[in-house]
Amino acid sequence: MTYRLYHMQSSGNCWKPRVALHQLGHAFELIDIDIMTGQSRTDEYIAMNPNGRVPLLQLPDGRYLAESNAMLAYLADGTDLMPSDRYDRGVVFQWMFFEQYSHEPYIAVARYWRHLEGKEPPEAVPGQIEERGYAALGVMEQRLNEATFFAGDTYSIADIALYAYTHVAHEGGFSLEAYPNIRAWLQRVAATPRFVDMDWRP
């Protein structure tokens, strides 16, 4: 059995393990789950992932792993996508936690509502999503003024995690015009070996 990824093609979180699997040369099967029509809330799917979300990765031994960044950490262990130095690994996880806490809740959420739903985010305090999303971009811009990639000189899963929704930030209403370091970094990530974009399927 190869890896099996339950995913939705347009999701940045689903793109993360998809690109990691491809860049690491793993064979895998894609199973499409349409969250917009409730396919992640069926009894069958909840039995695999009680949180009822995508992505979900089934390992070759049959076990399941949820949460996109957990999948990245699992897949990258012992590879060039995860530094061998203990501190450098800590830096990778620092930026992955930043992505989930300070970046994704604003930039990805804005994209979901504005691009996929075609609506304004109903729970947002006016301006809050923009303010906090641009604050996250500002932190990223500063980091990339001193480093080639987020963990230093080497591409890692921290870059995959942050690329996922940064490269489509415009779909949530965020402009990257004022962030030249981020724009240059996006090009560097896209130039890494065996990189594939969000539309790619094996």
From TrEMBL:
InterPro entries: Glutathione-S-Trfase_C-like, Glutathione-S-Trfase_C_sf, Glutathione_S-Trfase, Glutathione_S-Trfase_N, GST_C, Thioredoxin-like_sf. Residues 1-83 form the GST N-terminal domain. It comes from the Bacteria. It holds the Pfam family GST_N_3. CDD domains: GST_N_4. Residues 85-202 form the GST C-terminal domain. GO terms for molecular function: glutathione transferase activity. Its EC number is 2.5.1.18. It is an enzyme of class 2 (transferase). The keyword Transferase applies. Keywords: Transferase. The keyword Ribosomal protein does not apply. PANTHER family: GLUTATHIONE S-TRANSFERASE-RELATED, HYPOTHETICAL GLUTATHIONE S-TRANSFERASE LIKE PROTEIN. This is Glutathione S-transferase, unnamed subgroup. The lineage of its organism: Bacteria, Pseudomonadati, Pseudomonadota, Alphaproteobacteria, Hyphomicrobiales.
